[in-house]
């Protein structure tokens, strides 16, 4: 499988394959990588895959996107990644061995697709754990190493650290805002004692940490000399890994491949639902993809009106579903590429506007007139909606959900009438409630349950360097660890 850029120039080599783009971020022209065409899944394949365990299903699907790793090796990587030991936080009564079990609220009609049973209790583990194993494999083959530099306000940083800990050839330098994360989030990250993980708490805000990452990455000599890489949400391998659980969810929610399913996806950077879009393009029978945002409704606005209007940082709301607090959706370009008939000139013209801080308007275009063919509908949720939804789900079903999943359930209820009768609707559960316990207490007056293996982690010794937001000091810190 060859990869192309949404803006037309994928760079050198001219037609990269999966391993060529695995360790990189954007394509050299600023676009995002996509397969040159989506592999189609036949009815015979769907029939054969229906009963496969998660790791084998992952191999079957990923081997369509990854043709430059020998099949036996890819199979072993999937088997090592998707185990019940790693994804061990399934709800009582659900099978951990299913990796992403469905927890029905209304049997056969409305369910939660559990994506948050990995080590950091958020769906990012689904892709990041695979990425860790792929990185280690490809770096060993090439005799190379990488130094991952990132900034986090929570979920992404911890998922990256748990995926990369102890991996040969990989070091992680993760910047976080000093004193701005919850005690639980700090404990999750800072208690890691692995020698290849470096936590740097920057005395500033998240934006200061992010600015340092940008400054270091823009120093091309330093970046090349120190083999600096990233694992952000535009990484194609992360999107590809996420395609798998849409198939798994479909098989769990239906009893035959004649049926359809609908998904509702709490969305921020459009990475998760982009994988759903790709699964549908591959031929998975998905009736509808419902996109849920919080108060940061840039995506909801687009699907309702055809106007994509990225917000300024100052216009971005700080909400109680913080992992969806985005001002522009970094993976959205992949969908728009498909929407405009995979025309890279059109995408480049639209993103010339976006990159200049302006909106684009497709409302009068022939492309937007056909948007229904892609199955998308959208809605938004507020803090009050989240509280009410968490309460209602707890009272009606005895199930505690996190704030992001609550945004999804709220929009699923609102749009359920647009899903054809008899089609099961799965809301993607993107985090467990214990990660956002403040809002759970606000909604329910009680603390969420904490998985037994995470009891008391706040008391563990922590390994973190507190540093001023000083680019040169942080470069020196990296240099000493890399050369050391
Ligand atoms: C990252 C994240 C999201 C948003 O996912 P995108 O792929 O950015 O759309 C939603 N919920 C949680 C808990 C997350 O960590």
From TrEMBL:
Cofactor needs: pyridoxal 5'-phosphate
Functional pathway: Amino-acid biosynthesis
Domain Threonine synthase N-terminal residues, every copy: 2-82
E.C. numbers: 4.2.3.1
Annotated keywords: Amino-acid biosynthesis, Lyase, Pyridoxal phosphate
Keyword Plastid annotated: no
GO MF annotations, alphabetized: threonine synthase activity
InterPro entries, per database record: Ser/Thr_deHydtase_PyrdxlP-BS, Thr_synth_N, Thr_synth_N_sf, Thr_synthase-like, Threonine_Synthase, TrpB-like_PALP_sf
Pfam family, one: Thr_synth_N
Keyword Lyase on entry: yes
SUPFAM superfamilies attached to this UniProt entry: Tryptophan synthase beta subunit-like PLP-dependent enzymes (SSF53686)
Catalytic activity: O-phospho-L-homoserine + H2O = L-threonine + phosphate
PANTHER family the record matches: THREONINE SYNTHASE FAMILY MEMBER (PTHR42690), THREONINE SYNTHASE-LIKE 2 (PTHR42690:SF1)
UniProt similarity note: Belongs to the threonine synthase family.
Name of the protein in question: Threonine synthase
Organism: Thauera mechernichensis
């Amino acid at each position: 499988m060859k990869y192309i850029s949404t803006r037309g120039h994928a760079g050198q080599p001219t037609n990269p394959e999966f391993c060529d783009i695995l360790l990189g971020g954007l394509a050299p022209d600023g676009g995002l990588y996509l397969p040159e065409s989506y592999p189609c899944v036949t009815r015979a394949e769907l029939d054969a895959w229906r009963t496969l365990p998660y790791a084998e299903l992952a191999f079957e699907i990923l081997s369509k996107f990854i043709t430059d790793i020998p099949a036996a090796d890819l199979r072993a990587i999937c088997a090592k990644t998707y185990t019940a030991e790693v994804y061990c936080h399934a709800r009582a009564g659900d099978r951990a061995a299913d990796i992403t079990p469905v927890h029905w609220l209304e049997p056969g009609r409305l369910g939660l697709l559990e994506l948050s049973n990995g080590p950091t209790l958020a769906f990012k583990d689904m892709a990041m754990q695979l990425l860790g194993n792929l990185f280690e494999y490809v770096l060993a083959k090439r005799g190379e190493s990488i130094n991952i530099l990132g900034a986090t306000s929570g979920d992404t940083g911890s998922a990256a650290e748990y995926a990369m800990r102890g991996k040969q050839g990989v070091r992680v330098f993760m910047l976080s805002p000093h004193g701005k994360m919850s005690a639980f989030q700090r404990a999750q990250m800072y208690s890691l004692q692995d020698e290849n993980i470096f936590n740097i708490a920057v005395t500033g805000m998240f934006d200061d940490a992010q600015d340092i990452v940008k400054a270091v990455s823009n120093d091309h000599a330093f970046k090349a000399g120190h083999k600096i890489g990233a694992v952000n949400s535009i990484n194609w391998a992360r999107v590809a890994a996420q395609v798998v659980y849409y198939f798994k969810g479909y098989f769990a929610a239906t009893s035959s491949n004649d049926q359809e399913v609908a998904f509702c996806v709490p969305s921020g950077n459009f990475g998760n639902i982009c994988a759903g879009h790709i699964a549908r393009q591959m031929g998975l029978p998905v009736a509808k993809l419902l996109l849920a945002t919080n108060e940061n409704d840039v995506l909801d606005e687009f699907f309702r009106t055809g106007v994509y209007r990225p917000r300024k940082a100052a216009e971005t709301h700080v909400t109680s579903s913080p992992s969806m607090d985005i001002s522009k959706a970094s993976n959205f370009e992949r969908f728009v590429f498909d929407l405009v008939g995979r025309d890279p000139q059109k995408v480049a013209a639209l993103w010339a506007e976006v990159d200049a801080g302006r909106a684009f308007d497709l409302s009068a275009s022939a492309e937007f007139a056909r948007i229904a063919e892609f199955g998308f509908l959208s809605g938004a949720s507020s803090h009050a909606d989240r509280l009410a939804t968490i309460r209602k789900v707890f009272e009606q079903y005895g199930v505690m959900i996190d704030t992001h999943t609550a945004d999804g359930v709220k929009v699923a209820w609102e749009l359920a009438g647009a899903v054809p009768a008899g089609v099961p609707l799965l809301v993607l559960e993107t985090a467990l409630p214990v990660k956002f316990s403040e809002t759970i207490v606000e909604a329910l007056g009680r603390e969420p349950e904490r998985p037994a293996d995470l009891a008391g982690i706040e008391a563990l010794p922590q390994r973190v360097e507190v540093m001023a937001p000083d680019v040169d000091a942080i470069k020196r810190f990296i240099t000493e660890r890399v050369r050391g």
